[in-house]
């Protein structure tokens, strides 16, 4: 079978970790007899440097022609000045919107081998295995008015958190579908004691729950959820929430796994159903980390596990996805570690060697 994949290495360590993701994908092709046509394009700071746009039209068009998109990272300190007209992150937001990627899946699993990599006690972390479902194209990141202005009394700025019933319903359904295939527990996170948009969110969640009587729905305020992620992370199975809350909470949860270098993600344009293909973009949740770019020390596992998610959700290749996940776990069991997850008596490896080790076990 032949598949067409758009590859967006991006900025900083993006090309470093993407090379290892591609390496593992090619190993899957050899093992299972698939052909992956990889087409590379620009996004982020490298795109601004060459085209003055963080998301060139050619990039978006190529993504739309693909079966799936692999993205590494965007961001460059040269563009940190908020007064600049364009920023690398603009490309990522525009890509999500342009491809209709409304559902962001971020699995958080604490590998037994890394239970001591976090700053939390091992007994707190054991058994942690849940999925964040983050709404990705609405809320405060996209809603208008969004502006900054000067008054006679000083500067002001505003951002709006706006959600429609339809936007909420479709992301809640993603959460229910995933929960139905797992432990049948869904936590909906909001701030319904303060925010009007959260009150609508909760109302719609309750309405949708009637279609899923086999799934237990509970509601947790975002601040309480942040606390429970640290106190009792193993209590969660599937967590669904809006854009801003999901962004913050999933980064917090990355530390449960020991490093942001361990967490993959999928951004989907539809509701994932086992055995069916859903278009999506796949990326590690970490940033571009420009200070370590090209030094062969970045952890590529999040990118490699993102490849597994792509195989499962966009290409409907579940056995191949499982092979990648098992290969990554095998390498960890044998004691190989990059700098961010080093432990006593482990073997330190670089970005490229970690990719080699995982690819060899496919």
Topology:
Layout: E1 2-10, H1 14-32, E2 35-40, H2 45-51, H3 57-64, E3 68-73, H4 88-98, E4 103-109, H5 122-125, E5 129-135, E6 147-151, E7 154-158, H6 165-180, E8 185-190, H7 196-209, E9 216-221, H8 222-231, E10 238-241, H9 243-254, E11 264-268, E12 280-284, H10 301-313, H11 318-333, E13 336-337, E14 347-348, H12 351-360
Parallel strand pairs: 1-2, 1-3, 3-12, 5-10, 8-9, 8-10, 13-14
Antiparallel strand pairs: 4-5, 4-11, 6-7, 11-12
Helix pairs in contact: 1-10, 1-12, 6-7, 8-9, 10-11, 11-12
Beta-strand portion reads 15-25%
Q: Which second-level CATH architecture of the largest domain applies?
A: 3-Layer(aba) Sandwich
Q: What structural class is derived from the secondary structure elements?
A: alpha/beta
Q: Main sheet, how many strands, which sense, barrel?
A: 10 strands, mixed
Neighbour order of strands in the largest sheet? 2-1-3-12-11-4-5-10-8-9
Q: Indicate how many domains the architecture comprises.
A: 2
Q: Rough shape?
A: globular
How would you state the average pLDDT, rounded?
A: 96
Portion of residues within helices: 25-40%
Compressed to H and E, one letter per element, the order equals EHEHHEHEHEEEHEHEHEHEEHHEEH
Number of strands: 14
Unreliable spans: none
N- to C-terminal separation? 18 Å
Enzyme class: oxidoreductase
Subcellular location: Cytoplasm
Catalytic activity: (2R,3S)-3-isopropylmalate + NAD(+) = 4-methyl-2-oxopentanoate + CO2 + NADH
Binding site for Mg(2+): 223, 247, 251
């Amino acid at each position: 079978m032949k598949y067409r994949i758009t590859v967006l290495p991006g900025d900083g360590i993006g090309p470093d970790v993407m090379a290892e993701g591609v390496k593992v994908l090619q190993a899957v092709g050899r093992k299972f007899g698939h052909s992956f046509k990889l087409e590379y394009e620009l996004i982020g700071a490298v795109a601004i440097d060459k085209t003055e746009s963080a998301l060139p039209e050619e990039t978006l068009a190529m993504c739309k022609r693909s079966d799936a998109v692999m993205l590494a990272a965007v961001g460059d300190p040269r563009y940190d000045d908020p007064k600049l007209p364009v920023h690398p992150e603009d490309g990522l937001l525009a890509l999500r919107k342009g491809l209709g990627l409304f559902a962001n899946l971020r699995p958080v699993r604490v590998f037994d081998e890394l239970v001591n990599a976090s700053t939390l006690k091992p007994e707190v972390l054991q058994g942690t295995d849940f999925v964040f479902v983050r709404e990705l194209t609405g809320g405060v990141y996209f809603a208008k008015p969004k502006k900054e202005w000067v008054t006679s009394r000083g500067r002001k700025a505003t951002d709006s958190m706006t959600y429609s019933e339809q936007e909420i319903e479709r992301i809640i359904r993603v959460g229910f579908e995933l929960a139905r295939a797992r432990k049948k527990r869904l936590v909906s996170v909001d701030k319904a004691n303060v925010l009007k948009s959260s009150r609508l969110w909760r109302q719609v969640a309750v309405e949708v729950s009637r279609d899923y009587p086999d799934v237990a729905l509970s509601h947790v305020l975002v601040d309480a959820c942040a606390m429970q992620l640290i106190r009792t992370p193993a209590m969660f199975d599937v967590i669904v929430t809006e854009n801003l809350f999901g962004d913050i909470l999933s980064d917090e949860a990355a530390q449960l796994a020991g490093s942001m270098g361990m967490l993959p993600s999928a951004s989907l344009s539809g509701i994932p159903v086992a055995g069916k293909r859903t278009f999506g973009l796949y990326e590690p949740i970490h940033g571009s980390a420009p200070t370590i770019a090209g030094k062969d020390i970045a952890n590529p596992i999040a990118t490699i596990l993102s490849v597994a998610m792509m195989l499962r959700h966009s290409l409907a290749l579940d056995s191949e996805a499982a092979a990648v996940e098992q290969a990554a776990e095998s390498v960890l069991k044998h004691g190989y570690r990059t700098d961010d997850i080093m432990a006593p008596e482990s073997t330190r490896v670089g970005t490229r060697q970690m990719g080699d080790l995982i690819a060899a076990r496919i």
